[in-house]
């Protein structure tokens, strides 16, 4: 049985094919197409090693064949959690070739996140790294293996040369590729979320390939492109906008950085003569402050893309003078819609807007509180549908009923305005989420965990302004029996860490209050809580 997802209606699917957006090719074709003329080109380098397109193709074939021998088959699912390393792409392509749909967790995800993904997907395979605390010994991987009746767990040991994963991709094995249906789910993308439990986004071969190929065109990638992947590799931005997949499509090279700090990245830029990269705003700010006295030559840089969170105009203005390269703003979402400022945009638009959609058939509606469309230059809620915007979270009918309108438009929770030129400006948010420098926190997810603490009666988590990250998170806590109980930020941080959630989700600040403010209808008034941070 194929993996379920909400399909596009037949009339739109027909239109997307007629327009040539959906090519009815598997996502893996962007790799196989490089084998004709570019098999010796360098596909990937990570500072120590590099591999050619031929190697990437053969290694992923070998791994796919070896996993098939273990019993993995088309329409199974898998969990991958790897740092930025060559093995991430080998594993990703191996699974796609097999027709196994992975979810690729971020490396900073911990027990809570990984367990949720496993519960949703019931994966047959776990690929992880011993560099991660949870996989330093076998306890957690065995737990998952037994609980989900997995067929295999492959833990990469980056220190020892020899791991089961490495054997799996190095030992040649004839691979009989199963036929792939481009309408099928290729893999699951992660949503930043705004609900109590994480949501997975099914992405099909057709829709994702289109977003990648069109993005590579917009960003003018070529065989000469050397792209530094400094953000977490599975994130939608460095994977597909145009990201590593876009670079593979163009036949360029992807260089992997372990993190986006100037210390790590500047040496790689000089060494590999990096031309393109993608950053979140706080990383860009660090680059801008370090570049003027950096000991490295950064002059190969042609384009820095910035997205994930709103870039301030004053920071945007510094890119050209300090780094002597172009800036591109990118406003995207793992659910689909991606906007770019364009090469030939005037400077004002590049500095002040978050770009315009990839596709002429990305439909944008901006509506007021009553759901009526607003005129240009007016702020409203963003709704969208199109050839690469999903139609439903995986197995989430209740949430989907809220997230989509009756005509299939997805409500992203962003407050935006559209200029007559089509460019969007992100003005704010209408979703229960904190955007901590590009890392998204679903308030309800962390609130639920805190409510599990016996001494907490009520909790509300909201954003507070931060000069570096844009936003940080603050938890307002009402103690159950304040007269006799002592709770501190330290105790609650420790509590959350013991449960095992990504560090960035642990509130930056805890504020103990007697009661939470309520709105007229009795809901927690988060606006009032956020207002306490305004001067
Ligand atoms: P996710 O759902 O985790 O993929 O996160 C997507 C969200 O990130 C969007 O809906 C926006 O709220 C936010 N976002 C992404 N890029 C930008 C940007 N350039 N400016 C402002 N917000 C952004
Ligand atoms: O924040 C995002 O999710 C994002 C930002 C830029 C994204 O998914 C993308 C580009 O594709």
Automatic annotation (TrEMBL):
Q: Which Pfam families match?
A: AMP-binding, AMP-binding_C
Domain AMP-binding enzyme C-terminal: start-end pairs: 445-523
Domain AMP-dependent synthetase/ligase, by residue range, is: 33-394
Pathway field of the UniProt record reads: Siderophore biosynthesis
Give the InterPro entries listed for this entry. AMP-bd_C, AMP-bd_C_sf, AMP-binding_CS, AMP-dep_synth/lig_dom, ANL_N_sf, DHB_AMP_lig
Cite the entry's keywords alphabetically: Ligase
What SUPFAM superfamilies does the entry give? Acetyl-CoA synthetase-like
Q: Which GO terms describe its molecular function?
A: ligase activity
Q: Which family does it belong to?
A: Belongs to the ATP-dependent AMP-binding enzyme family.
What protein name is recorded for this chain?
2,3-dihydroxybenzoate-AMP ligase
């Amino acid at each position: 049985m194929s993996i379920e997802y909400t399909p596009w209606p037949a009339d739109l699917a027909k239109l997307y094919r007629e327009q040539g957006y959906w090519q009815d090719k598997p996502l893996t074709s962007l790799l196989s197409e490089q084998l004709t003329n570019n098999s010796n080109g360098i596909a990937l380098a990570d500072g120590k090693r590099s591999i050619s397109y031929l190697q990437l193709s053969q290694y992923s074939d070998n791994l796919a064949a070896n996993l098939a021998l273990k019993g993995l088959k088309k329409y199974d699912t898998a969990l991958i959690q790897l740092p930025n390393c060559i093995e991430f792409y080998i594993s990703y392509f191996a699974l796609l070739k097999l027709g196994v749909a992975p979810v690729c967790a971020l490396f900073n995800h911990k027990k809570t996140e990984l367990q949720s993904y496993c519960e949703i997907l019931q994966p047959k395979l776990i690929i992880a790294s011993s560099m991660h605390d949870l996989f330093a010994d076998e306890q957690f991987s065995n737990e998952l293996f037994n609980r989900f009746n997995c067929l295999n767990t492959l833990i990469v040991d980056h220190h020892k040369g020899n791991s089961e994963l490495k054997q799996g991709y190095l030992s040649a094995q004839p691979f009989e590729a199963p036929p792939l249906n481009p309408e099928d789910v290729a893999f699951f993308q992660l949503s930043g979320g705004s609900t109590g439990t994480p949501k997975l986004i099914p992405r099909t071969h057709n829709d994702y390939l289109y977003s990648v190929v069109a993005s590579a065109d917009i960003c003018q990638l070529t065989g000469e492109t050397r792209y530094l992947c400094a953000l977490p590799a599975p994130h939608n931005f460095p994977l597909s906008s145009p990201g590593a997949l876009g670079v593979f499509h163009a036949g360029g090279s992807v260089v992997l950085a372990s993190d986006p700090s100037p210390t790590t990245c500047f040496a790689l830029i000089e060494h590999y003569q990096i031309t393109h990269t993608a950053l979140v705003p706080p990383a860009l700010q660090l680059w801008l402050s370090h570049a003027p006295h950096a000991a490295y030559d950064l002059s190969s840089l042609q384009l820095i893309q910035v997205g994930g969170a709103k870039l301030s105009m004053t920071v945007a203005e510094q890119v050209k003078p300090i780094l002597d390269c172009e800036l591109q703003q990118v406003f995207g979402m793992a659910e689909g819609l991606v906007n770019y400022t364009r090469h030939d945009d005037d400077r004002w638009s590049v500095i002040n807007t978050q770009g315009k959609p990839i596709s002429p058939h990305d439909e944008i509606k901006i509506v007021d509180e009553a759901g009526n469309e607003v005129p240009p230059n007016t702020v409203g809620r963003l709704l969208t549908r199109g050839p690469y915007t999903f139609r439903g979270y995986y197995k989430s009918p209740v949430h989907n009923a809220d997230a989509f309108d009756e005509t299939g438009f997805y409500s992203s929770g962003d407050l935006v305005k559209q200029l007559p030129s089509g460019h969007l400006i992100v003005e704010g948010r209408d979703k229960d989420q904190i955007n901590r420098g590009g890392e998204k926190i679903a308030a309800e997810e962390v609130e639920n965990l805190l409510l599990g603490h016996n001494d907490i009666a009520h909790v509300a988590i909201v954003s507070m302004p931060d000069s570096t990250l844009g936003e940080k998170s603050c938890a307002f806590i009402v103690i159950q029996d304040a007269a006799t109980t002592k709770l501190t930020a330290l105790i609650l941080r420790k509590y959350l860490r013991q449960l095992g959630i990504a560090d960035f989700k642990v509130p930056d600040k805890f504020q103990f209050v007697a009661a939470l403010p309520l709105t007229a209808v009795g809901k927690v008034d988060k606006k009032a809580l956020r207002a306490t941070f305004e001067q």
